[in-house]
């Protein structure tokens, strides 16, 4: 379980780095671009994927291109969500995106709906509503961004997971698909940075580059340790899945509440607890 714990820490560390970015004058867009350069380099060095499979017929390039576009843009949405809604809501919304991939599994991939999964989906949707609930005071303080960005994170990461399932279903090895996705995401992130640079909204800073390296290490570590967790416990995929998702929601809540003093209403806290229950039910199914 040490691999799952390390994956949880890396996942929450990504949110912490995004939370601290504005405080230390870090350009998020630039850091995200560096992040994909680092993640791609680590994939090549540590996973050593064979890219010949990407030249074979049947490679779902539309799904890979979709992932290349979504990864950096949803990363920007996650950064905005952490800034406006906090780590607790953002991490929980990201993990609850599994509800969309579950619905897609039933509608597109022929998976059978069980009572536990149906109950988990219902609780998850209720949890999402509770977590984005701001109330009158919250709306006045944070505006619509406080609920809009978590919803974008929820929808975006759900779409990413569905596209990832499509790539896996096509038989593309994980290492090769990650290498392709990171390369495409880097191109999209660089294009966004070039557009911002031409409009005078961005300039290179060593601080943003270093933050991007740290972000890339945490992002890749999250993926690598999660995979290692499944390899170490091949007979218990549900345990790895539940531990990862519940761990991120729980640790994210502790970090947000204790380290950053994020303010949550009772309804928001209830949503976090419902999210934990929903993930547990889905994993049990």
From TrEMBL:
Keyword Electron transport applies: no
Pfam families assigned: EamA
For this UniProt record, give its keywords in alphabetical order, as a comma-separated list.
Membrane, Transmembrane, Transmembrane helix
Q: Where are the transmembrane segments?
A: 59-80, 92-109, 115-133, 145-164, 170-192, 204-227, 239-260, 267-283
Superkingdom is Bacteria
Where is the EamA domain positioned along the sequence?
2-132
Q: Which residues form the signal peptide?
A: none
What name appears for this protein in its UniProt entry? EamA family transporter
What organism is recorded for this protein?
Rhodanobacter terrae
């Amino acid at each position: 379980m040490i691999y799952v714990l390390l994956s949880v820490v890396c996942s929450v560390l990504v949110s912490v780095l995004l939370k601290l970015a504005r405080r230390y004058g870090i350009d998020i867009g630039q850091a995200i671009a560096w992040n994909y350069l680092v993640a791609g380099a680590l994939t090549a060095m540590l996973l050593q994927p064979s890219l010949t499979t990407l030249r074979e017929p049947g490679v779902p390039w539309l799904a890979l291109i979709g992932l290349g576009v979504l990864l950096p843009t949803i990363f920007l949405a996650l950064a905005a969500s952490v800034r406006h809604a906090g780590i607790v809501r953002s991490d929980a919304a990201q993990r609850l995106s599994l509800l969309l991939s579950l619905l897609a599994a039933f509608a597109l991939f022929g998976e059978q709906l069980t009572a536990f999964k149906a109950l988990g989906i219902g609780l998850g949707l209720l949890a999402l509503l509770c977590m984005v609930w701001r109330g009158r005071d919250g709306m006045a303080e944070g505006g619509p961004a406080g609920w809009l960005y978590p919803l974008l994170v929820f929808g975006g990461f759900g779409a990413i997971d569905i596209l990832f399932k499509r790539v896996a279903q096509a038989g593309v090895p994980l290492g090769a698909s990650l290498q392709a996705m990171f390369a495409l995401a880097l191109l999209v992130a660089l294009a966004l940075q070039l557009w911002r640079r031409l409009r005078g909204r961005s300039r290179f800073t060593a601080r943003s580059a270093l933050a991007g390296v740290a972000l890339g290490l945490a992002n890749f570590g999250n993926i690598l340790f999660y995979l290692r967790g499944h390899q170490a416990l091949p007979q218990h995929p549900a345990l790895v899945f539940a531990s990862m998702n519940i761990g991120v929601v729980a640790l994210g809540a502790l970090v947000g509440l204790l380290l950053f003093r994020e303010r949550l209403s009772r309804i928001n806290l209830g949503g976090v607890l419902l999210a934990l229950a929903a993930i547990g039910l889905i994993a049990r199914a």
